[in-house]
Amino acid sequence: MIDTHAHADTRPSEDFEQMALAGMTDVLTLAHDPMKMSSSVVFKDHFERLFDERARAGKSGVRLHVCLGLHPRTRPGDLPACLALLESYLADNNRPVTAIGEIGLETGNAFEVDMLQRQIELGIKYKLPVIIHTPRTGKMQMTREIISILSTFSLDRDSVVIDHADADTVKLIVDRGFNAGLTIQPGKLTPAQAVEIVKKYDPARLVLNTDMSSNPTDVLGVARAAHAMRLAGIYNVIVEAVSTKNAWRIFRLKI
Ligand SMILES: [Zn+2]
Fold this sequence. Notes:
TIM Barrel, globular, binds zinc ion, alpha/beta, single chain
């Protein structure tokens, strides 16, 4: 199984062991806002930390895949330098970046929209998937706004995950040909809610994750949701698609 959205830098090593025991082989760890991300210097330290985490998770048998980006809750004072820094990592073939993320909108102000657009451009330039955050507040409105921004670009919609989808926004996302991320976490989706969504929508367009962070977290959220799907009688081929195979396709992971 694959957790397609996590913040491994916030979690203890014991969590990776728990995940490995539950059958988790691969985890995407995304850049976020673990501190006040005030400048490109802070972003560089954060990005380096994410690469360092690969060895820590690897000791428990979990492969970490690094995703880099400027989270919409950040407002660095030197945005052009931050974007140049991000691009320098994307251009470095020695340490592959799996996707751009997490990026997105939090309140939808002009700064966030500009930062999102610049990063979508980088995703297109470097042929990388993008993982897009939607906020808790105003989720439907922000999801619409994100889709309208994405629609101004010529891009492969299968390389876009619009994340933290809920029962209302998932239809909007998959109907437009994008992938929807289902976040199994206290306060987001429960395993039972994920079951209902998977029953209703095209399973090829859905991926699971925990968004594990220092906020309330269930590190076994993906495994728990997959288990709930099997108990609900969902075919194994569908459970495998949403918990593993779709992520292989979208993020072009290599064994
Ligand atoms: Zn996140």
